[in-house]
Amino acid sequence: MAYSDEVIDHYENPRNVGSLDKEDEHVGTGMVGAPACGDVMKLQIKVNDMGIIEDAKFKTYGCGSAIASSSLVTEILIGKTLEEAGKIKNIEIASQLALPPVKIHCSVLAEDAIKAAIDDYKQKQNRL
Amino acid sequence: MNKFSPIYLDYSATTPIAPEVAQVMIPWITEKFGNPASNTHVYGWDAEQAVEDARTQVASLVNADPREIVWTSGATESNNLAIKGAASFYQDKGKHIITLKTEHKAVLDTCRELERLGFEVTYLPVKDNGLLDIEIFKQAIRPDTIVVSVMMVNNEIGVIQDINSIGQICREKGIIFHVDAAQATGKVEIDLKVLPVDLMSFSAHKTYGPKGIGALYVCRKPRIRLHSQIHGGGHERGMRSGTLAPHQIVGMGEAFRLAKQNMQKDIEHARTLQQRLWNGLKDIPAVYLNGDDVQRVPHNLNVSFNYIEGESLMMAMKTVAVSSGSACTSASLEPSYVLRALGRNDELSHSSIRFSIGRFTTEQEIDYTIDLVKKAIVKLRELSPLWEMVQDGVDLEKVQWSSH
């Protein structure tokens, strides 16, 4: 399988790998996918008081395209508002990475991860 | 090491043509072009002689009579001819076939096709070491069972089935026994004067021969009959029509001659390197060997590295050519059916790598591979949320995953 240069770049030099403190009230954590499918993404966002995502971290179990999708997502998210983040579509991710049809689902999962992280953050805020 | 040529550790997928084999083939490509069926002139007689010499070489590796060897285009065709041919010929005795869930697609898909044509097939499970439970096999036999097909050596995990015991049972019950030996030639002693096998498939390209040529052993004592699947001229005693390809055939003959000559040496060489590779990998945390550790060929090591995914591991190992039981690397998104049959959960099937060693593998290549794998595992576990959860003491079996 030939990978695009973008995918290879993100795989060799993944951006923002790691974890934020799940208990931190400013952090939203989204975990999507399932080991049975061969894809699990954990995406975390740190949102400041002005509703801007100031940091994002990811960890992914999955193929090169899945890793690249989540790595790219963290890059895109930093500096965006929650509203802007919620509008990110998988096609943007897929086209930036030049994903072949058989790998499009990796970008879909990445979009799901964003929404899951935002949801988690909002639920936390509602509880506070 | 040439940066454009990764280290080859995928011998179970195919093997390079041995230099001696290539040498033997060349005159039959550049000069000697006769059709072996042309029995009126020397062009044909020469070609025919070469074909018969090669037939003897193939028969010799497996201690069979040359008249029991039928040339085909490869083990896939041999499997088709054996199973469809026997089922069709013997269908008045019954229409039940038994095989294993772990067989090669060439057998499984052939059985599916026979189901479409009105036969019934039982696909037996295996134990978690990949071996067939003989008691389970006995219980599956019915009065209308006519054909059993079990591979000698599994292509994914390298386990060796107890062909002798299965064959004895088939003989007692008058059931035709077919064995796919594509991955076995040159790796395991095969003596067809002793083994109770009726049909056996061979492949050239798994044993340092060219692709596109194989053979089927068809037992003469007791005489096994088949309905030919390819018609047109009645070649190969009516079992397989079509002009024979001398350049391919002499290649397969030479490959099998070399296999016989080098078998012990090849086995020792593979065993030493397999040990070296496993010793280098086994201390990595959460590493599993797939398939029985004793009843296996030394050329194969199928390993699962838990909490990382196979395709991403292979990406980290670009300089080594291997294959994976991961869904991402197969055309469908499903993980290896062989590993599933071992009872491996989906994560372990997604995270497996098959390393297969061959005649030309060196110690240096193994050491390089061990080093590369270790580094890759560290990097990918850093990236893995599953590994993180396990380190935190989470039981992954209890997690509610979101599906997508």
Put the structure in a nutshell.
The complex is a heterodimer of chains A (128) and B (404). Chain A is an alpha+beta fold and 128 residues long.
Q: What would you note in describing this structure?
A:
The complex is a heterodimer of chains A (128) and B (404). With 128 residues, chain A is α+β, with helices and mostly antiparallel strands. Helix content of chain A is 46%, strand content 20%. The model of chain A has no long low-confidence stretch (mean pLDDT 94). The longest helix of chain B is centred in the middle third of the chain and has 36 residues, at 246-281. The two termini of chain B are 43 Å apart. In chain B, 51% of the residues are buried. In chain B, helix 7 (163-173) links the parallel strand 5 (145-149) and strand 6. Chain B is an alpha/beta fold. Chain B has 13 helices and 13 strands. The chains are: A alpha+beta (128), B alpha/beta (404). Chain A binds chain B through residues 1, 3, 8, 11, 14, 17, 19, 31-42, 59-64, 66-67, 105, 108-109, 112, 116, and chain B through 307-309, 311-312, 315, 326-329, 333, 335, 345-347, 350, 382-388, 396, 401-404.
Q: H/E series of chain B, N to C?
A: EHHHEHEHEHEHEEEHEEHEEHHEHH
Helix tally of chain B equals: 13
Q: What is the makeup of the main sheet of chain B? A: 7 strands, mixed
Shape of chain B: globular
Helix content of chain B: 25-40%
- Looking at how many chains there are and whether they match, the oligomeric state comes to heterodimer
Q: Mean pLDDT across all residues of chain B, rounded?
A: 94
Number of strand segments of chain A? 3
Pick out the low-confidence regions of chain A: none
Q: What profile does the largest beta sheet of chain A have?
A: 3 strands, antiparallel
Structural Rg of chain A: 14 Å
Percent of residues in β-strands of chain A = 15-25%
The strand order across the widest sheet of chain A is: 1-2-3
- The largest sheet of chain B has its strands arranged as 2-8-7-6-5-3-4
| Beta fraction of chain B | 5-15%
The helix content of chain A, as a percent range, equals 40-55%
End-to-end distance of chain B, in Å? 43 Å
Quick check: average pLDDT of chain A? 94
Structural class of chain B: alpha/beta
Question: Can you tell me the residue ranges of chain B where pLDDT is under 50 for at least 5 consecutive residues?
Answer: none
Quantity of strands of chain B, as a count: 13
